[in-house]
């Protein structure tokens, strides 16, 4: 089911929307502004953002345009601004859907389901294409302890980073439990802190983004762990 962030500066409305979406099986986080949204993104990867327009500081149109410029996540505008010009501005900024407050939660739920279906179809097609093109795969060079990005950037890895990425990429698309990740990090099962694993993943994402400009395709899987959601080519062996 979908990971969703609801961005609205009305805490009561935000909680109500989050409560409803949680009851229908979605994993939901709330943010009251653009900075609060940005603070969530390193540790919670949303499939979709439900976004108000009238927010303190950066408005929803600007946030939507910024998200769309570097992400394929779904964007649903949920706002009281019903003028046609506002609708057009929201869609031009990158929103996939534009809903007017007050909204029936069932309509919001249906919109999210429809959008998630479209996104999953698009992503599945993209994965199939990437799987056919080995040049587009991620890989590892065991001789230099480096991650090789699809655009051929080589990112040096520490021992811990290499072990984590190795276990996650061994079977791309299949979730890996937190216990297995903890074991790969040399921690005793049952004695590790979930937040420490989340912090490792956040640091890895930032490192890959900073060095290569590419997004590391590691995603959180609710109640399980993490998944490497991209094709991985054959590793380059030390004796190759």
* CATH homologous superfamily (4th level) name of the largest domain: Response regulator
On the 0 to 100 scale, the average pLDDT is 85
Q: List how many beta strands DSSP finds.
A: 11
In N-to-C order, the SSE pattern is EHEHEHEHEHEEEHEHHEE
The major beta sheet can be summarized as: 5 strands, parallel
Strand order of the largest sheet: 2-1-3-4-5
How many domain modules? Answer: 2
Tell me what you see in this structure.
With 240 residues, the chain is α/β, with parallel strands linked by helices. It has 2 domains: 3-128, Rossmann fold (3-Layer(aba) Sandwich); 134-228, Winged helix-like DNA-binding domain superfamily/Winged helix DNA-binding domain (Arc Repressor Mutant, subunit A, Orthogonal Bundle). The protein is built from 8 helices and 11 strands. The strands form 3 sheets. It has a 5-stranded parallel beta sheet with strand order 2-1-3-4-5, sandwiched between helices. Strands 6-7-8 form a 3-stranded antiparallel beta sheet, with helices on one face. A 3-stranded antiparallel beta sheet has the order 9-11-10. Strand 4, helix 4 (84-93) and strand 5 (97-100) form a beta-alpha-beta unit. It starts with a strand and ends in a 12-residue tail after the last strand.
Short summary:
The chain has 240 residues and is of the alpha/beta class.
